[in-house]
Amino acid sequence: MKGSRASATRSSKTKRTRARSPKVEEIVRLVHTLSSNLGSEDGVVMGRGVVRLLAGAYRERGRSLPRWVKQLAAHYGVKPEGG
């Protein structure tokens, strides 16, 4: 049973990561790259701003939020308006 708890935790995190849209993964990487010289809090602020911009764009067009925008919002801990 060597490392079974750690393996189970790592496995569940891996499954969650894989379940995200490729768009979400790419945007998260981009935000991370853009904010790499900033503090970690600044990267989160930047990511939340991206979510708000996307949600606003969909809302202004009268469209519901796609799943990938909702996933991105969940990643950054934002409850997007219009979704």
Describe this structure in words.
By secondary structure, the chain is mainly α. The protein has a domain at 21-76. The protein is 72% helix and 0% strand. The protein has helices spanning 4-19, 22-34, 40-60, 67-76. The chain is globular. Mean pLDDT is 82; it is low at 7-17.
Outline the fold blueprint.
Blueprint: H1 4-19, H2 22-34, H3 40-60, H4 67-76
Task: Offer a few descriptive terms.
mainly alpha; 83 residues
- Give the radius of gyration: 15 Å
Counting helices, strands and paired strands, the structural category is mainly alpha
Helix content: over 70%
Assembly classification: single chain
From N to C, what is the helix and strand string?
HHHH
N- and C-termini, Cα separation: 43 Å
* Gross geometry: globular
Uncertain spans: 7-17
Content of β-strand: under 5%
Count every beta strand, where a strand is a DSSP E run of 2 or more residues.
0
Largest sheet: none
Overall pLDDT metric: 82
Concise structural overview:
By secondary structure, this protein is mainly α. The chain is 72% helix and 0% strand.
